[in-house]
Amino acid sequence: MADPMWMRAQKARKLLKRMSKQQNIDMKSIIGPYHFAYLVDFRREFIEMARRDFDLGAVVIGRILNRNHSTIIYHTSPELRKKKMQRYTYSRRGNPFRDENGKFIGRPEGLSL
């Protein structure tokens, strides 16, 4: 019989502590509100391991990391991350100050600073 959810969650917490010691990252930083790239990468790695090794859901992993379950879903879905990056990537099309090649053409008529 498989371990109950609470036992798998405890094992995942122990894994998180071991990983933090190995990579020399403070647990307060990991579960805190910080969005530094190394912390995001660390959390993403932990999320993947917790899902794969302990078969935990997004809600349980979110509670371990002090994050909302939708954040966990985002980190496990490459399609969602790709869609977000496309949404926030600057496109030169439609920019009134540049032509189709990206060359600056100046202000449109009637636009003052």
Question: Could you give a quick summary of the protein structure above?
Answer:
The chain is an all-alpha fold and 113 residues long. The chain is 60% helix and 0% strand.
Q: Give the strand tally.
A: 0
Helix tally equals: 6
Mean model confidence by pLDDT? 83
Roughly how much helix do the residues carry, as a percent range?
Answer: 55-70%
Structural class: mainly alpha
Low-confidence stretches: none
Strand content: under 5%
* Series of secondary-structure elements, N-terminal to C-terminal: HHHHHH
What does the overall shape look like?
elongated
Distance between the termini: 71 Å
Question: What's the multimeric state?
Answer: single chain
What's the story with the biggest beta sheet?
none
Report Rg: 21 Å
